[in-house]
Design goal:
CATH class of the largest domain: Alpha Beta
CATH superfamily of the largest domain: Type I PLP-dependent aspartate aminotransferase-like (Major domain)
Shape: globular
Order of helices and strands: HHEHHHEHEHEEEHEHEHEEHHHHEHEEH
CATH topology of the largest domain: Aspartate Aminotransferase, domain 2
Bound molecules: ligand PLA
Strand order of the largest sheet: 2-10-9-8-7-3-4
Number of domains: 2
C-alpha cells in the first residue's frame, strides 16, 4: 500500500548528522545524566544558594504576590516592543535616570527575550539597517556571541582582549585592533564582569576604549548580562555604558535580568538603541517593530511585570539591591575559600587570579584535558575552556573542587 511504502521509505531528515551539545548548556545535560549524588555543576552561570539550590529572590516573590492579587492585571498581548514601564525603567537602570539620552528621548527600548534575544534582535536590526555588516568580538567571549551575530547575517571578527601571560587585559592589543578595524565596525563590549575571563577594563581604560571607538566611528554594542554582579553595585557596574552614552554618541545595549534578578527561565531582557536625536529614535523604533513582529510578535508579560514592579517601587528596589549584593558577596567569599583551599594543598601555580577576577566566573587556566580529568574522576562539571561558575560553588563543594584542581595540576590520580 502506498501509505506503508512511504512510511518505510527513508526519512526526509535522514541526511541529518547528530549535532554536538552546546558547549555551555550541554554541560548541564551531561550533569543531569550522571546518577552520582556527589556531582557538582559549575558549568552554566546560574546562582546557587549555600545549599546548592536555585534561588528565587524575596523581592521577586513579593512582586509576584502583588501581581497575583491585582485583579486589574490581565494576560493580553503586550505591544510589539513590550511593557512600556519595564522598558523605561530598564533603560534608566543601565543609563541612570538623569542620562542625557533619557532626558532628550534619544533612545528606544524594546523588551526582548532575555539577554540572548536582545542581542539577536539588535543583530537582526543591524543586518537590515546598518551599513557595516561586521562585528568585532573580544577574544575570548561568551561562545554564543559568534552564532547570534553570524546567524543574523553579520560577518564576525575578533579583537584582542585577554592576555594569557598576565591573566589580565591586553589593553594595548585591544586598542590596536579597534584602531585597525574598518571604520564603522560594530564593537561588542561586555558591560561588566566579562564572560568567561572575569577581567574588566579600569575606568581609565574604558575612557581610552571609548576614544578609540569614537575616533574610528565604530558602533559600540554593549552586552550587559551581569549588572550588579561585578561590584555588587548597580551603578558602578553601569559605568562603562554611561561613559559611552555621556559623549552623545550612538550605541546598542542588550540587558538581561536572568542573573541579577534570578529570572533565568522567565526570559526578561531589553534592547536599547541610543540615537543622536529623538527624531531618529522614533524612526528606529518603527523599524525595530518590523524586525520583531515576524520573529515572535511580542514578548511574554509575566517576567517583565515582575521587573517593572521591582524597579518602580522604592521599597522593593532597595530590598533588591540588598539581595543582589548578598549574591555578589557570596561569590566573592567563594573566591577566597577556593584560593585558601588551593594554598592549603600547596597546589603548584599562582592562583591569585581567582581572587582578582570579577563576576560569576573564574577563568582558571586549566586546559581541556585537565577539565575532562576533573569531570571523569571528581564529577565536577565545567566548560572545557577551564571556566568555573563560582556562583555554583558552596562551602561544602569547595574542598572537592580544590582536590580535583590539585590532582589535575599535579597529575595525581583521583
Ligand atoms: N551575554 C553573556 C555575556 C552571557 O554570559 C549570557 C549568559 C547571556 C548574554 C545570555 O543570557 P540570557 O539570554 O539568559 O539573558 N551566559 C550563561 C548562560 C550564564 C548561557 O550560556 O546561556 C553562561 O553560562 O555563560
Amino acid at each position: 500500500m502506498e501509505a506503508t511504502a512511504s512510511a518505510a521509505a527513508a526519512s526526509v531528515f535522514d541526511h541529518l548528522e547528530q549535532a554536538p551539545e552546546d558547549p555551555i548548556l550541554g554541560i548541564t545535560v551531561a550533569y543531569n545524566k550522571d546518577p552520582h549524588p556527589g556531582k557538582v555543576n559549575l558549568g552554566v552561570g546560574a546562582y546557587r544558594t549555600e545549599e546548592g539550590k536555585p534561588l528565587i529572590l524575596n523581592v521577586v516573590r513579593r512582586a509576584e504576590e502583588r501581581l497575583l492579587a491585582d485583579r486589574s492585571k490581565n494576560k493580553e498581548y503586550l505591544p510589539i516592543t513590550g511593557l512600556a514601564d519595564f522598558n523605561k525603567r530598564s533603560a534608566m537602570l543601565i543609563l541612570g535616570s538623569d542620562s542625557p539620552a533619557v532626558v532628550e528621548k534619544r533612545l528606544v527600548t524594546a523588551q526582548c527575550l532575555s539577554g540572548t534575544g536582545s542581542l539577536r534582535v539588535g543583530a537582526e536590526f543591524l543586518a537590515r539597517h546598518y551599513g557595516v555588516k561586521l562585528v568585532f568580538l573580544p577574544t575570548p567571549t561568551w561562545g554564543n556571541h559568534f552564532k547570534v551575530f553570524m546567524n543574523a547575517g553579520l560577518a564576525v571578527k575578533t579583537y584582542r582582549y585577554y592576555d594569557n601571560k598576565t591573566r589580565g587585559l591586553d589593553y594595548e592589543g585591544m586598542l590596536e585592533d579597534i584602531g585597525a578595524a574598518p571604520s564603522g565596525s560594530v564593537i561588542l563590549l561586555h558591560a561588566c564582569a566579562h564572560n568567561p575571563t572575569g577581567v574588566d577594563p579600569t575606568p581609565q581604560q574604558w575612557e581610552g576604549i571609548r576614544q578609540a571607538i569614537r575616533n574610528r566611528g565604530h558602533l559600540p554594542f554593549f552586552d550587559s548580562a551581569y549588572q550588579g554582579f561585578a561590584s555588587g553595585s548597580l551603578d558602578k557596574d553601569a559605568l562603562a555604558v554611561r561613559t559611552f552614552v555621556a559623549d552623545g554618541g550612538e550605541c546598542f545595549i542588550a540587558q538581561s535580568f536572568a542573573k541579577n534578578m534570578g529570572l533565568y527561565g522567565e526570559r526578561v531582557g531589553a534592547l536599547s538603541i541610543v540615537s543622536k536625536s529623538s527624531g531618529v529614535a522614533t524612526r528606529v523604533e518603527s523599524q525595530l517593530k518590523l524586525v520583531i513582529r515576524p520573529m515572535y510578535s511580542n514578548p511574554p508579560i509575566h517576567g517583565a511585570s515582575i521587573v517593572a514592579l521591582v524597579l518602580g517601587d522604592g521599597d522593593l528596589f532597595s530590598e533588591w539591591t540588598v539581595e543582589l549584593k548578598g549574591m555578589a558577596d557570596r561569590i566573592i567569599s567563594m573566591r577566597h575559600k577556593l584560593y585558601d583551599a588551593l594554598r592549603a594543598r600547596g597546589t603548584p601555580g599562582d592562583w591569585t587570579h581567582i581572587l582578582k577576577q570579577i563576576g560569576m566566573f573564574s577563568f582558571t587556566g586549566l586546559n581541556k584535558e585537565q577539565v575532562q580529568f576533573m569531570t571523569r574522576e571528581y564529577r565536577i562539571y565545567m566548560t572545557l575552556d577551564g571556566r568555573i561558575s563560582m556562583a555554583g560553588l558552596s562551602l561544602k563543594t569547595v574542598p572537592l573542587l580544590a582536590d580535583a584542581i590539585h590532582a589535575a595540576v599535579t597529575g595525581a590520580k583521583a
